[in-house]
Amino acid sequence: MSSANRPRGATAIRAEQPALANFRLPRLKVRRGHVVAGALVVGCLVIALGLDTEESPKPDLQVASSEAAVTAEAAPLQHEKPATGLPEPALSVPVEAPWEEQVVRSGDNLSLIFKRAGYSDKEVHRIVTESADGKGLARIYPGQTIAFQGDAAGKLISVRHVKNELETIAYTLDEHGVSSKTLAREPEKRVSTATGVITSSLFLAGQEAGLSHTTIMDMANIFGGVIDFVGDPRKGDTMHLIFEELYLDGSKFDDGEIIAASYTNQGKTYTAYRYTDAQGDTGYYNEDGVSMRKAFLLAPVDFTRISSNFNPRRIHPIYKTARPHRGTDYAAPTGTPVYAAGDGRVIKAGYSRANGNYVFIQHGEQFVTRYLHLHKRRVKQGQKVDQSQVIGTVGSTGAATGPHLHYEFLMNGVHRNPRTIHKKLPKAKSLPQTEMAQFSASISSVTTELAQLQEDMDTRLAMTRPDDDRG
């Protein structure tokens, strides 16, 4: 406190000194008992003032000599834990042992990977034999990650098998054995829309609309029973999709399912909606509840151009003789996937000089499909196959002038034109009438959204059409 502001007749006490250093009682004649009582009063004042020479701020005591009264200027009281004068104990935060990651290389096995990480075949054997998921660790693929964690002594205590971005298997090793658990992540689903106009091909139109190759092929498979995307699409056809995209940590991770789609081919519109029926089976149905999945695909190959149609009188390009061409040739680059046209069983799979690598599939009692000149076969005789399953790849083996698929369709042993026989094939199944109300309710919102996409497309096309075409 400055001398200008110091109260008259008051004595300032240095904050650095103990509070009792300059404290003086008035010289009064008192009895011994009074002295004791006075000492007790002073003691109480000391306790009340909470004097602390180390941590608490020092109050300025003022002694009024005329009245022998003591006052103090103290800081406001706070509800805090009383100071003990002892240092606060440090928090003990356990530090996790570091992880060492090994990326699976081509030709790797568990023994090699564990050795690179500094561990022996003993640990490999423990995990594979003692853990419930151990056999799964033995099935590793290039690009996957295996991480190792050891203790301070270098002993292996944990292993992580990162199978993909969504699934990790964690193994823990201790004196009791090896335990494992699956760590799964769920991607975020975001709904997107896309529209496109066919100018040259479905694939290019899909790319221009921002669709991935996977989504384009999924759409082709959905409509594969009613549209031959090799021969049917025409310039000016339109497509509209409502589909899911999967995100992880804010970035696109993968393509999701198509929720609804429509394709207008030469003025006729086909519509498909994804729906799970009462039995738990998921498929695509048109607005009337009729399944889009037909008994056979119209084109059993990734859509491209057709080099030769069904022609019973054509001249063979190699043998130069009039040999019936009882099928359809689909020209495509070597390695293009070839699909099973329908569910069935492989009755023949082999090689001949004329057919090259071939696969024959029996579908029920009436139908057989044949696939010739394959580069590679992916199925064996006697194997059961599903519609759209890859059974081989396009090639030019046997009597072929270039890479293509020769596809034949037989009904009761007679060759039929694969592009027209579908009109005589069994009808697709429909949802039961008891389920139609639920189906209609489930597709209500996407039906409206799909119609809006079609309307917006029609408006844009009308605005860009030349004046003399608007008539």
TrEMBL record:
Q: Can the keyword Cell division be found in this entry's annotation?
A: no
Coarsely, its chief localization is other
Task: Give the UniProt keywords, A-Z.
Answer: Hydrolase, Membrane, Metal-binding, Metalloprotease, Protease, Transmembrane, Transmembrane helix, Zinc
Necessary cofactors: Zn(2+)
State the Gene Ontology BP annotations.
proteolysis
Q: Where does the chain cross the membrane?
A: 33-51
CC annotations in GO: cell envelope
Q: Which residues form the M23ase beta-sheet core domain?
A: 324-418
Q: Report the GO molecular function annotations.
A: metal ion binding; metalloendopeptidase activity
Residues in Csd3-like second N-terminal domain copies = 192-312
The record's subcellular locations are:
Cell envelope
Q: Does the keyword Membrane apply?
A: yes
**What Pfam families is this protein classified in?**
Csd3_N2, NMB0315_dom_I, Peptidase_M23
Please report the stretch or stretches of sequence annotated as the DD-carboxypeptidase/endopeptidase Mpg-like N-terminal domain: 99-159
Q: What is the protein's name according to its record?
A: Peptidase M23
Q: What is the organism of origin for this protein? A: Pseudohalioglobus lutimaris
